[in-house]
Amino acid sequence: MNRNPQLDEKGALQHLLTIEGLPREILTHILDTAASFIGVADREVKKVPLLRGKSVFNLFFEPSTRTRTTFEIAAKRLSADVINLNIATSSQTKGETLLDTVDNLLAMHADMFVVRHAQSGAAHLIARHIGPRGHVINAGDGRHSHPTQGLLDMYTIRHYKRDFSRLSVAIVGDVLHSRVARSLIHALTTLGTPDVRVIGPKTLLPTGVERLGVREFHDLRRGIADCDVVVMLRVQNERMSGALLPSAQEFFKSWGLTAERLALAKPDAIVMHPGPLNRGVEIDSAVADGVQSVILAQVTFGIAVRMAAMSILAGN
Amino acid sequence: MKILIKNGRLIDPASGADERRDVYIAAGKIAAIGTAPAGFSPARTIDAKGLIVCPGLVDLAARLREPGFEYKATLESEMRAAVAGGVTSLACPPDTDPPLDEAGLVEMLTFRARSLNQARVYPVGALTLGLAGERLTEMAVLHDAGCVAFSQADTPVADTQVLWHAMQYASTLDFAVWLRPQDGYLSRDGVAHDGEVAARLGLPGIPAFAETIALSTILQLARACETRLHLCRLSTAEGVAMVRRAKAEGLKVTCDVAAHHVHLSEMDLGYFDSHCHLVPPLRSERDRDALRAGLADGTIDAICSDHAPVDEDAKQIPFGESEPGATALELLLSLALKWAQETKQPLAKALAMVTSRPAAVLGIEAGAIALGRAADIAVFDPEDHVRVTPEFLRSQGKNTPFLGYELPGRVRYTLVNGLVVHES
Lengths: 316, 424
Known about the structure:
Chain A is of the alpha/beta class and 316 residues long. Chain A contains 11 helices and 9 strands. Chain A has 2 domains: 138 residues, 3-Layer(aba) Sandwich (Rossmann fold), CATH 3.40.50.1370; 150 residues, Rossmann fold (3-Layer(aba) Sandwich), CATH 3.40.50. In chain A, helix 1 packs across helix 11, helix 3 crosses helix 4 and helix 5 crosses helix 6. The longest helix of chain A is centred in the last third of the chain and has 19 residues. Chain A is globular, with a radius of gyration of 19 Å. Chain B has one domain: Metal-dependent hydrolases (TIM Barrel), CATH 3.20.20.140. Helices cover 29% and strands 22% of the residues of chain B. Chain B is built from 12 helices and 20 strands. In chain B, helix 2 links the parallel strand 9 and strand 10.
């Protein structure tokens, strides 16, 4: 049970479920492979044949357009057959269990599953069930993990900053509910980033977050001082008027990223965001569209990183 | 039927006996210890050489899943599991469907249990109707039907005024109230201890103070109402400290801990192992160590199995959606022995935690081997081990975090009322 479920007996990647516990070499290998795929999008024929004849099933138990689309594009550029299943509106409502659904798809000779689910641990459950019979990529499970997002964030940081070993990275906002934050924290600490900070109100930071290897700040101004990278997290609408936060305006007042606050970071600091943006809630439009923003580059890199992950899992 | 258990090492924690003594059983009772009564000619002789003869175990929390949840377990399967684990008396919480809030349900359960002729079943009645925390049950009627105490199982009473009145009323009639301290609001949506592991795995947390805040309320009400109070399944270090202080102050309070929490911590969740989805949640290693220390210094009165058979389908889903609970009736003795081994406590002390002391909590004549008492006895091999596998477990629930473990001790014979109900 406690063996790393992502690796096969030889230590190669069988499933991509979480950044946590993955060796530095595997993370670097994915990033390097992604770099080799960046050019594919600029070719006249935007395809490589690495997954020809393979079936990739996008299993989305939670609605998503952006992430599903980028996985679909990545798989198609690798020449795979892509089947999109929006389970939120099909079998699960008829009472079929998660693993029954997976068994049915395995019987249809699925090679790879891209899974998104509202429950933390769902991708682990499926991967444990499938074992060596296929590959699972976690495209987001509850609050737990979203490894390809973490990797594309790392790719972006490496692209602009070259070296992780001297960086200060600030992650701002709703860390408690964020699989993006957890994935990025593990990726940064694994690849040797010396200074990772999380910034937000206590209601949106997990208990004992410092045990993840980060420093905790509540004051945005102090937290982003002299940072090289500022990662803004999306604050879900449903969190913004209840016991966690009084209102979107109040959140912006203390933790929204404005040009004036960004000026406290290093002059060449980059601003990242996993999307979709809440303009005027966590980030001011002037910053989101400003020269320091690399938010759209993240999206582009995301396709290459997902191609890399799929191609490595498929054994290339 | 006359039975002789000879050559065994008799350990009776209630009397402090620990010596090689033969036990003579006649007409379902202990007829003599050490020397044969005149003209005693046994119909059966059990050679207990190298084995330990102790009182049958008393378990303060075993869910039999009847009525209402027979797909998870039946009285037959769980009673077999009980005696296979050396358990001869067990208290079952009222969280059946419907809950044990009516005399008819309690009578049916005790009748069904009695007719199986295995372990003795002591129902704990619901404190409030439907466990809804609004209206009191007919406690006097339920008591006559066989309820030994009143509890809310795992559903806290949110309305503290109702809880206050329930404890006053129970106190009036001198009934014991059993409560598992947990604040219902602070634990809402939580599935794991609010600590390092939940932070890492992204699981909604139940903070330790969900227990201690409720505990503080309960202790103050018990003090004010002079209620006989039993606290079920403590899980936190601070909770143990609070009970220690309450006992020192002279409050009429006892408490137990679930066998899982004596051995496991949040770390055992690993990669979302739903077998470790328990209530209360497995907490930090510091909490686990404090529970062990609480057993050693006597603050905690008993180890219970907190037996909760769950069907496998309800565990083969994501952790947060999986049904909490673990099967443990058959592991109770082994887990108590394991505690004694690991903490270098005397064997008799471990046995006291699953025999005489829980019997005292229940206020029943059990958990002792004494002249004239019913012959409820467990005979086990302390040198042997059990390997926990689905095949080994007689319970219908195969869900336990200890699957694959090798645990000390193996029950060889179980006697209830002077009859051998299990042997292996």
